[in-house]
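Fill in residues.
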């Protein structure tokens, strides 16, 4: 059996469906800003700088990111913590 109905075809179809869902999430949670000049983009420092490093990007999976997110969001973060945390890391 070959094609979409074969086991490998079904698996590829499932992977494509997952890819489309992930791309949709990215699109929904993205904001694109185009400027005429370059500059520095800075965000509020969230404390995950040592957890999510460029070296780890090749090992990231949806499950890894969900685990990191769940751990981070479960921490108690009073307003004072946000007021003291830096807005940028360069």
């Amino acid at each position: 059996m070959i094609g979409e109905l074969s086991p490998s075809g079904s698996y590829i179809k499932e992977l494509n469906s997952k890819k489309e869902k992930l791309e949709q999430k990215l699109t929904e949670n993205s904001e694109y800003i185009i400027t005429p000049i370059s500059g520095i983009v800075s965000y509020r420092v969230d404390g995950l700088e040592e957890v999510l490093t460029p070296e780890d990007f090749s090992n990231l999976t949806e499950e890894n990111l969900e685990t990191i997110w769940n751990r981070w969001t479960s921490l108690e973060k009073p307003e004072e913590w946000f007021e003291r945390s830096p807005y940028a890391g360069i």
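The chain has a mean pLDDT of 76.
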